[in-house]
Amino acid sequence: MHFRYYVLFFILCFRGLSFGQDIHFSHVNRQPLYQNPANTGLFKGDIRLTANYKDQWRSVTVPFTTIAIAGDVKWKPKGMAFGAFLFYDKVGDGKFKTIEFITSAAKIFKLTSDSTHSISAGLQFGMNYRQVDYNQFYYGEQFDGLVFNPNFGDKETFNNDRKFNLNVGVGASYQWRIRNKEQLTVGLSGHNLNRPNQGFFGTKIQRDPRMSLFASYERPLNQELSLLPGLSFNLQGTYRELVLGTQVRYTLIEKLGTYRAVDAGIWFRSKDAVIVRVGLAMQNWSVALSYDTNISKLIPASSLRGGLELSAHYIITRFKPKKITHRVCPDYI
């Protein structure tokens, strides 16, 4: 009877540093809706579409794969924005799958008439689905005394292989537009506030709340160069994650409606990895690619290899033509 609990405990613990840990990305601020619900609508434009792909620990075990897509849109007359986020995560031999769909809404409050200082408050509500395939595991009963024989039955009966629950989160973000192209953003959010039950076998195992703090800063050094440092700190149960670093962006061209820029930077995940990231922006598109080099105690198994991550943003801006009223001068003038 205890064997099934050991199996599930191993699956979930190997997924990260703590039991029931949420997914995480190395691209700080490149998945804004998952980072903080108050980020909904915080961009220049009208509609934002984002996508992320992460592949990690391929050198250690069955690769951990995370795919995410999101979109948010502004409702400018009311100063509000709405968004949705969907991610798919698969880990381990048992193909432990997590699918989560999250909707968000945010409201922006101007603290000054010129919008130099503003605060955004956001709310998230989502659905979480988890499933594990026990047929993918190897069991002691399948050992015939000499070798492993997959034809032998495992003699294990599991009551449940899937779990569905709801998730609630809130967040706030402060924006300071210091001057043209210089801006500071700081946000704080709480996730899994309802502590959903993720136990598979009748035992109540509550998902720990995750507190998330982030900060991003953009400072132009000259006409072409800009510095973009940032940090992200997540606290969930006994798990701690601190990611900090910076990107340097070089603008190739920005005139007559044409925009081209490249960026490169280095980031650190405390006690875990060094992350090298490069990016490219063209018009409304921006893409980024990074690789995590593992520096934790897992080096003997990982051989310094961590994971590859790719992200993409696309922003749609609607231009409304100005309404011009023509006046015809009378003949006698």
**SS strand fraction:** over 45%
**Overall average pLDDT:** 83
CATH architecture: Beta Barrel
Report the total helices: 3
Task: Specify the CATH class.
Answer: Mainly Beta
Gap between N and C termini, in Å?
100 Å
Q: N-to-C SSE series?
A: HHEEEEEEEEEEEEEHE
How are the strands of the largest sheet arranged? 1-2-3-4-5-6-7-8-9-10-11-12-13-14
CATH superfamily: Outer membrane protein transport protein (OMPP1/FadL/TodX)
Assign a percent range to the helix content: under 10%
Query: What structural class do the secondary elements suggest?
Result: mainly beta
Major beta sheet, specifics?
A: 14 strands, antiparallel, barrel
| SS elements, strand count | 14
CATH topology: Porin
Topology readout:
Blueprint: H1 2-14, H2 32-35, E1 47-56, E2 64-75, E3 80-91, E4 96-110, E5 117-131, E6 162-179, E7 182-191, E8 210-220, E9 225-236, E10 239-255, E11 258-269, E12 273-282, E13 285-294, H3 299-302, E14 305-316
Antiparallel strand pairs: 1-2, 1-14, 2-3, 3-4, 4-5, 5-6, 6-7, 7-8, 8-9, 9-10, 10-11, 11-12, 12-13, 13-14
How would you describe the overall organization of this protein?
This protein has 333 residues and is mainly beta. It has one domain: Beta Barrel (Porin). It has three helices and 14 strands. A 14-stranded antiparallel beta barrel has the order 1-2-3-4-5-6-7-8-9-10-11-12-13-14. The longest helix has 13 residues. It is globular, with a radius of gyration of 24 Å. The N terminus is likely disordered.
